[in-house]
């Protein structure tokens, strides 16, 4: 598969992740009387990854996330030469998804960004959780998400079920951590919406790059041992 097609798939997939996941939080989570709530938002993020894994997994691997690319690199599943182009495509896709979401959301009278599904800690955590709590949460949640990805895509695992396991894994991650950080585990997702929220969201964005990448790298190291063949 050519690099241009891989990068195009990553751009489109991350665009859909941000538009679908963050869009559910901005447009539908608290909609009067029929809002989808926390469970609906968690499912929306999981469903975006599940659907795109079936749609583009055979093209680019469907990373949609710089942390996933790093975790797969450390785990020996992804070439180092492709890391930077993948990350750029993912971040641009995330920004494009956030831009479309902003255009849609701003069409409502009296629109205010009101966080715009950005990730935060302290006063900007949905539950008021501290920097340390947010750091630990994002590292651990990304670690577990990458273990799911690495295990589900292992050549010894049932290949057809990998997208289901990964999508449900991301849903569970969101169910646990939305109250803490609004759930990142994905620097591209965090960057896209933070640029439109501005201010505090940009000043806290560093955490949602550092923590997911650390968690993903640790998972890559762990799975090299955990999934090693005894032969």
TrEMBL record:
Cellular component terms (Gene Ontology): plasma membrane
Main location per the UniProt record: membrane
Membrane topology: Multi-pass membrane protein
Top-rank taxon, per record: Bacteria
Reactions catalysed according to its record: H2O(in) = H2O(out)
Site (Selectivity filter): 45, 174, 183, 189
Motif NPA 2: where in chain: 186-188
Subcellular location: Cell membrane
Function text: Channel that permits osmotically driven movement of water in both directions. It is involved in the osmoregulation and in the maintenance of cell turgor during volume expansion in rapidly growing cells. It mediates rapid entry or exit of water in response to abrupt changes in osmolarity.
HAMAP family: Aquaporin_Z
Notes concerning its domains: Aquaporins contain two tandem repeats each containing three membrane-spanning domains and a pore-forming loop with the signature motif Asn-Pro-Ala (NPA).
Name of the molecule in the record: Aquaporin Z
The organism of origin for this protein: Mangrovimicrobium sediminis
Lineage of the species this protein comes from: Bacteria, Pseudomonadati, Pseudomonadota, Gammaproteobacteria, Cellvibrionales
């Amino acid at each position: 598969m050519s690099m241009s097609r891989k990068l195009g798939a990553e751009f489109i997939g991350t665009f859909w992740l941000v538009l679908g996941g963050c869009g559910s939080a901005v447009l539908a989570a608290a909609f009067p009387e029929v809002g989808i709530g926390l469970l609906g938002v968690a499912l929306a993020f999981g469903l975006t990854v599940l659907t795109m894994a079936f749609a583009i997994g055979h093209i680019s691997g469907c990373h949609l996330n710089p942390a996933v690319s790093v975790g797969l690199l450390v785990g020996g599943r992804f070439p180092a030469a492709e890391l930077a182009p993948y990350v750029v495509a993912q971040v641009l896709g995330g920004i494009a998804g956030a831009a479309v979401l902003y255009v849609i959301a701003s069409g409502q009278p009296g629109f205010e960004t009101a966080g715009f599904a950005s990730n935060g800690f302290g006063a900007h955590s949905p539950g008021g959780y501290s920097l340390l709590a947010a750091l630990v949460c994002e590292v651990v949640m990304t670690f577990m998400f990458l273990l799911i990805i690495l295990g589900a895509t292992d050549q010894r695992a049932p290949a057809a079920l990998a997208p289901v396991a990964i999508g449900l894994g991301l849903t569970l991650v969101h169910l646990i951590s939305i109250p803490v950080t609004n759930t990142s585990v994905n620097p591209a997702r965090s960057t896209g919406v933070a640029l439109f929220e501005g201010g505090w969201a940009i000043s806290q964005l560093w955490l949602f790059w550092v923590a997911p990448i650390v968690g993903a790298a640790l998972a890559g190291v762990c799975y090299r041992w955990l999934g090693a063949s005894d032969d």
